[in-house]
């Protein structure tokens, strides 16, 4: 039976087109690049200047390193290149059309945003088009990120205890002058309860630390699914780290990711009913947290976090679709700030950006952005139906994008690169598993059981 499976079922590396060419696997540069991504993601907020600029950061160096290695690593598959060219065409057409009737066009802001968007497009093209790192390298990279996430969760817990119980801020800014501590250079004060301070670890704010830890949790659960690793204590430590941020993002992300994990591990006959119950429980828990903390009222209170992330962008998107169906030109905010419902909060005090990346896509890409988000929703649903473990990281990344407006900032570009590689790995793993199951079924059906002929009837 094993010989039949090995003959008929393709391996992961055959399905993924991975960097495996005999003994040259160790010299494949993409293997090393993927294993380095966790370090760039963890230290992404580290900057190399003292003016709190977020441009010249470790994230930007990580993106540049990935692009440079990918450019010289060999051929690129045609489909991602075609999508990138189409994306570039849409960006140019959008800018040309809006320039004709957009009254207050800021060329400097447009150029800055266009540069970052093209950097994101190139990164997606290379991540989706170059040869996939080997299975061993992807697993090592995911487990390395998980390990770093556990250590970072320990730091978050220490910061929480130190700040709230000891009244000290000794560990709250590990990078010193080479990183922001809190939004725009100030510590993050109490938000949920008056007596609770919110640590942010290596990141600029608690919600960013929460979504990074959520990516680590999703990666740990992927390793459990595809490699059989025991991740119970690891997952517990990561959830503790997320909750230590006292951020609503941490609670939501943890519940959603664990709910998705339950769904993809259920037998298919009870997956639908139990999945509905799981997501109903998650939704109920989220609503209960919102009610108990009083944050449900923030959804309709101008200037609060939920208002600027959900209520205000939703209303803005409707107005954008009416007036600019193909979106605003990149970086243009005059139409946004002119709306009566646009109210800045602490995080937006120095900018007119939105604080939800999904709405940012809709605002600046209009109907094209809506089509892209619909495709993403379809991709998540299809992965859930196929019990593809890559949906864990895909959902975690979608949640992270929805919790910040800097969707094409270098640290988010790194996150998207990592997600694409993990999803490609899990797609190939799922394909290989399904092929093994099909080969097993076919081989079992091909076995002909012969029985001795009955004795002849006596005369």
List the main descriptive attributes of the protein structure presented here.
mainly alpha, 0% strand, disordered N terminus
Number of strands: 0
- Rounded mean pLDDT score: 75
Question: Unreliable segments (pLDDT under 50, ≥5 consecutive)?
Answer: 1-26, 346-350, 447-459
Shape: globular
**Oligomerization status of the protein chains:** single chain
Can you walk through the features of this model?
- This protein has about 450 residues and is mostly helical.
- It has a domain at about 265-300.
- It contains 16 helices and no strands.
- It has helices at about 1-10, 10-15, 30-40, 60-70, 80-100, 105-130, 135-165, 205-225, 230-245, 250-265, 270-295, 305-325, 335, 355-385, 390-400, 410-445.
- The two termini are about 45 Å apart.
Quick description:
With 459 residues, this protein is mainly α.
Topology at a glance:
Elements: H1 2-8, H2 12-16, H3 29-42, H4 58-71, H5 78-101, H6 107-129, H7 135-165, H8 206-227, H9 232-244, H10 248-264, H11 268-293, H12 305-323, H13 334-337, H14 357-385, H15 390-402, H16 410-446
